[in-house]
Write a sequence for this structure.
């Protein structure tokens, strides 16, 4: 893979998450400085301690579609709350959003063990409101990698290689390598995101890019390496939801 350049960062937190430290305006300015064409505002769902009320997500519609030259994608990082794959926003809110990630987070999920975590993620991947799974390589929530990658393929969903994992979720490297290798094998699209909690982090992808290169994942398989692919992703969501 040639050097990975992101055109969009699809997983970014603002002060609304309760434990992140930048505003949308600050992130937009940093994105412009770095040459990003878009970023997704994906604050944590309401089950996260300190996270925003569901009204936050209902009110994302008041944001401008662009700040300067940078497009703003309205999203969420949902918490998967149980093995059924339930998440912490109802469909009437999820239908308002451009993009919805889901993931397993401490204090938000009531199961335990690989079988439980895997069942939760497989069920979440079936949910038409969910576009993909964030940080599936988190070693705190070990998953059946093969089963998750096959399910992502079946439902045409994304798996994320999260650049922050390598310094905030220690032990992520090996599980992320396994996900990347199987994503390459099965032809599953990935997203490479910063999971920025402070504006300076937005767009960062160096370590994740190394993991992808080692796994032999082509740039074309990274959804946010081009705005064309990002637009296809958003259109695919709209189409799925229009069929419900
Ligand atoms: Zn997360
Ligand atoms: Zn996050």
């Amino acid at each position: 893979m040639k050097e990975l350049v992101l055109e969009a960062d699809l997983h970014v937190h603002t002060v609304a998450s309760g434990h992140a430290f930048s505003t949308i305006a600050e992130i937009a300015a940093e994105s412009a400085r770095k040459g990003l064409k878009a970023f997704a505002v994906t604050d944590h769902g309401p089950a996260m301690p300190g996270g925003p009320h569901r009204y936050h997500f209902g009110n994302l519609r008041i944001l401008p579609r662009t700040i300067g030259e940078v497009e703003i994608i309205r999203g969420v990082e949902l918490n998967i709350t149980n093995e059924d794959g339930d998440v912490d926003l109802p469909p009437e809110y999820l239908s308002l959003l451009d993009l919805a990630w889901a993931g397993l987070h401490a204090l938000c999920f009531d199961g335990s063990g690989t079988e439980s975590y895997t069942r939760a993620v497989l069920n979440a991947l079936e949910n038409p409101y969910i576009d993909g799974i964030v940080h599936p390589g988190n070693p705190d929530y070990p998953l059946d990698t093969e089963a998750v990658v096959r399910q992502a393929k079946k439902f045409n969903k994304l798996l994320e290689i999260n650049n922050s994992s390598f310094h905030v979720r220690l032990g992520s490297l090996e599980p992320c390598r396994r996900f990347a290798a199987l994503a390459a094998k099965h032809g599953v699209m990935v997203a490479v995101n910063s999971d920025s909690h402070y504006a300076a982090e937005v767009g960062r992808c160096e370590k994740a890019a190394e993991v992808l290169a080692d796994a032999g994942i082509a740039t074309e398989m990274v959804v946010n390496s081009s705005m064309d692919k990002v637009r296809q992703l958003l259109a695919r969501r709209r189409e799925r939801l229009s069929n419900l």
Remarks:
- The beta strands are 8-12, 38-44, 66-67, 70-79, 99-103, 132-133, 158-162, 190-193.
- The chain has a mean pLDDT of 97.
- The pocket of zinc ion (ligand 2) is lined by residues 11, 13, 77, 195 (CB under 6 Å).
- The two ends are 38 Å apart (CA to CA).
